[in-house]
Amino acid sequence: MRAIALSLAIALLCTAVRADTHTDVMHVFGGMASALSSGNPDQFMDAFDRNMPDYERIKDEVIQLVAQGQITTIAQPTKDEGDNKRRSVDLDWSLDIPSADAGQPPAHRRETVHCRLERLNRHWRIVALDPISFFAPQNFNQK
Length: 143
Fold this sequence. Notes:
Layout: H1 2-37, H2 41-45, H3 55-66, E1 72-82, E2 86-97, E3 107-120, E4 123-130
Antiparallel strand pairs: 1-2, 2-3, 3-4
């Protein structure tokens, strides 16, 4: 009986840790979406490990993206797997980017964004993102 109670307590603790981990990771993406909508590329980049490949490219492109105007963004998780040190998250992410021509509707971009996160110094940081080009500025000269 004591072993069953101990097993149940461990199972409940593990469930609580997973729930807290999921919530913490989702706060990372909520902060990113909020940063894009408020035009704050530095806050957006806080979610990334500065040592990840393409960090500077993402930063430069996000700066150019938010310079195009008020971004509307929604990110919905479709997959969240891993443990309390490493996570793999897929998001159904959409962006509406204002057109350079005020009479035109915003450009709409929607894609599944794959992220790998690691807990670094007690904070979740993105260590890999695909596709990196998702956060590039809209090129309104292309047809």
